[in-house]
Amino acid sequence: DARVTQTPRDKVTEMGQEVTMRCQPILGHNTVFWYRQTMMQGLELLAYFRNRAPLDDSGMPKDRFSAEMPDATLATLKIQPSEPRDSAVYFCASGSLDTYNEQFFGPGTRLTVL
Amino acid sequence: GQSLEQPSEVTAVEGAIVQINCTYQTSGFYGLSWYQQHDGGAPTFLSYNALDGLEETGRFSSFLSRSDSYGYLLLQELQMKDSASYFCAVISGGYQKVTFGTGTKLQVIP
């Protein structure tokens, strides 16, 4: 049963600390997306990769956020330093070029910054 | 840029039919997807339309009119488990970027 996995599932941290979220896309998928979801802003696209190359990260605050794909099985999203306004659920999703219209979402990381 | 509009909330009776509309503005349009998200869960894919017309998948159907920049999701024979948020998402641009709408919260009542 292929699925996207994300770790950690929940993270509580203090303002100013570094946060790293990890995502393992479905094997064979070559497109990876990072989203942030809040009640106020809804589902926002932060960044996405194709074949490990970043295609668009215009939705991401560049001064504190960074996204990478060190290899085809791992995507990371880092926040440094974290702020209370970063509290949200962060979703990773993957897809393939054959079915780019369909994304498979991971369970999300619920981040709380105190 | 892209923009999408959906109603924020819809209430419907169990067994009935409900339609959730989505209008969009974008350049380089490829298609329109629909996703379902239950409270506390992750979005799951429901359907995709690239061409005008109706796509049917079981109790769910999705419609697209490219000339009107409009689509809708039709849910038939509503069940209590259909209570969830429904998002339309536009795929557009050279890199097939995906932009989600703000979501419609559907409440199914007995």
Give a topology summary.
The complex is a heterodimer of chains A (114) and B (110).
Chain A: E1 5-7, E2 10-13, E3 19-24, E4 31-38, E5 42-50, E6 53-56, E7 65-71, E8 74-79, E9 88-95, E10 104-105, E11 109-113
Chain B: E1 3-5, E2 9-13, E3 18-25, E4 29-37, E5 44-49, E6 53-57, E7 60-65, E8 70-75, E9 84-92, E10 97-100, E11 104-109
Parallel strand pairs in B: 2-11
Antiparallel strand pairs in B: 1-3, 3-8, 4-5, 4-9, 6-7, 7-8, 9-10, 9-11
**What's the rounded overall pLDDT mean of chain A?**
92
Indicate the structural class of chain B. Answer: mainly beta
The percentage helix of chain A is under 10%
Tally of alpha and pi helices of chain A:
0
What is the strand tally of chain B? 11
Low-confidence stretches of chain B: none
What's the order of the H and E elements of chain A? Answer: EEEEEEEEEEE
Assembly state: heterodimer
Distance between the termini of chain A: 36 Å
User: Approximately what portion of the residues of chain A adopt beta-strand conformation?
Assistant: over 45%
- Secondary structure tally, helices of chain B: 0
Principal-axes shape call of chain A = globular
The topology string of helices and strands of chain B comes to EEEEEEEEEEE
Radius of gyration of chain A: 13 Å
